[in-house]
Amino acid sequence: MNKNINLTGCGTALITPFKGGEVDYDAFAALVDRQVEAGIDFLVPLGTTGETPCLEDDERIKVLQTAKAHSKGLPIVVGGGTNSLKHTIRSMQMLDPYGVDAFLIVVPYYNKPTQDGQYQYFKAVAESTDTPVVLYNVPGRTGANMSAETTLRLAEIDNIVAVKEASGNRGQIEEILRNAPEDFMVLSGNDDDTLWMMEKGGAGIISVASNVAPEHMSRFVKAIQGGFMEKAYRLNEELTPLFTNCFVESNPIPAKAAMHAMGLIENEFRLPLVPAQQSTYDLMVQTIKDLKLI
C-alpha cells in the first residue's frame, strides 16, 4: 500500500463526455491531457461529477484506463462507492487492477446510515483493500452527514488517508482540521471553500471548476500553498462567479455547458440529467468570457 500518497493541491473531479449516447473516450483523453498540461496535481475520474451512476462496468474500466494512460504519472483517485458494502467492494476489486492510487468512497446514499453505521461501513471497506481510501462526505447528495467525530475515528484506520469534505459545515470541518492525525489529508469538496480551508490547514481541493478552468485553479491553489495570499485572494475573487455558477443547476450540468461552449465536448448527458436551460448556458458563456477562456 502507498501510505505516502500525496493528494495535496488541486485535483479535478473529471466529467465524463458523451457523444451519440456513448462515452466519448477521445474527448475524455483530450480533457485529461488539458488537465495535466495546466498543472493539476491529481485526477479524480468516476466521481459524482463523472455521472458514474449512469456508466456501465465496462465503461468505468475504460474511463479509468484512459485517465491512467494520459495521466503522465499523476495520482489517480477513483470513485468506487455505492450504497451497499458488497457492491462497493466488488466495484473496488473490479477497478483496482487498472491503475488506482486511491479510492474515493462516498457516505452511502439513500440508506441514511447512523454514525456507527458509517464507521462500520468504512472500516469494512478499508479492511477489504490495500489501496488507500479517501472518505467523501457530501450530505447534500447522500442525505446523511458524517460527523467530525466519525471522520476522526476513521482517520485512525491505517489505510484511510484523507477526507473530501463537502458538507459546507465550517465548524465541523475546522474540528476535523484541528484534531486529525498529522498524515491525514483534509480536502475541500466545494470550490468556494478552498481558500479558507487551506488557510486553516487543508491539503487542497477536489474541484469541479477545474474542469472548466484548470490553469486558473492550479494558479489559485499554488498561490495559497506558496503563501502568496494577496494573489490568492485576488484569484479567489476572480473565480468566485465560476464557483457559484457551476452549481446553479445540478453538477455537472453547468460545467458541461461551459465546456461545450469552449468546443471541448458535446453538451450531452444520460438521463435523469439533461442539458442546461438556456439561461444557465448563457450564464456559463458569460462566466468563461470573463475569465478569458473564450
Beta strands, count? 10
**What strand order characterises the main sheet?**
4-1-10-9-8-7-6-5
The major sheet is characterized as: 8 strands, parallel
Strand content: 5-15%
- Rg on CA atoms, Å: 18 Å
The end-to-end distance, rounded to whole angstroms, is 43 Å
Range of helix content:
40-55%
How many helix segments? Answer: 13
Overall 3D shape: globular
- Looking at CATH, the homologous superfamily is Aldolase class I
Mean pLDDT: 97
CATH topology: TIM Barrel
Low-confidence stretches: none
SSE pattern: EEEHEHEHEHEHHEHEHEHHHHH
* CATH class label: Alpha Beta
| Quaternary structure state of the chains depicted | single chain
Number of domains: 1
The appropriate CATH architecture is Alpha-Beta Barrel
Kindly describe this structure.
It is globular and about 45 Å long. It has helices at residues 25-37, 57-69, 85-95, 115-127, 139-142, 148-155, 170-179, 194-199, 209-212, 214-225, 229-245, 253-261, 278-290; strands at 9-13, 18-19, 22-23, 42-44, 77-79, 102-106, 133-137, 160-165, 185-188, 204-207. It is α/β, with parallel strands linked by helices. The longest helix has 17 residues, at 229-245. It has one domain: TIM Barrel. The strands form two sheets. It has an eight-stranded parallel β-sheet. The chain is built from 13 helices and ten strands.
